[in-house]
Design goal:
The protein is of the alpha+beta class. Helix content is about 30%, strand content about 15%. The chain has one domain: 2-Layer Sandwich (Muramoyl-pentapeptide Carboxypeptidase, domain 2), CATH 3.30.1380.10. It binds zinc ion. The site of zinc ion (ZN) has 7 residues, from loops.
Length: about 150
């Protein structure tokens, strides 16, 4: 276990920090330890509850500084800016299901699935309005009506 600002994170989730810190190469914007704690919870859920032992999360994006957020076309009040959001890649429809299962388990505040793209944005934003925990926002919400 690693102590990050008083929050205990598994060595495995801690090792994902470089993947989740801002990628501009200039700033020092780091992923929030609370987000790493959530990643830990996801790993445990998928491996222990769902029994998918080989699962490991992969993110294309986590924390962003203002400049990097602009460069990648992020939203103005994006949760990426406070290091509380990640764009998580799913490498198969099964992996998509496991991640969604965890999202419902933990009541992740906001999640966005972009049809045709292989990642889910999920966050615990405290700088943006929070929808009902069971609502997927933005793109193709009807797709998710089949999920209890
Ligand atoms: Zn940056």
């Amino acid at each position: 276990m690693v102590d990050v600002n008083g929050i205990l994170i598994s060595d495995e989730a801690y090792s994902l920090m470089p993947m989740l810190n801002c990628k501009c190469g200039k700033c020092k914007n780091e992923i929030n330890p609370v987000f790493l704690y959530l990643v830990d919870s996801q790993i445990r859920h998928v491996r222990e509850v769902l029994g998918r032992k080989t699962f490991s999360p992969f993110f294309t994006c986590g924390a962003r500084c203002e400049k990097h957020n602009k460069d990648v076309g992020g939203a103005e009040n994006s949760a990426h800016l406070v290091g509380m959001a990640g764009d998580q890649v799913f490498r198969s429809i099964f992996e998509f299901d496991w991640i969604v299962s965890w999202i419902y388990e933990t009541r992740v505040q906001r999640k966005i699935f972009y049809l045709g793209r292989k990642f889910i944005h999920w966050d615990f934003a405290y700088n943006t309005p929070v929808p009902h925990p069971h609502e997927w926002i933005k793109v193709y919400p009807e797709y998710f009506n089949i999920i209890p």
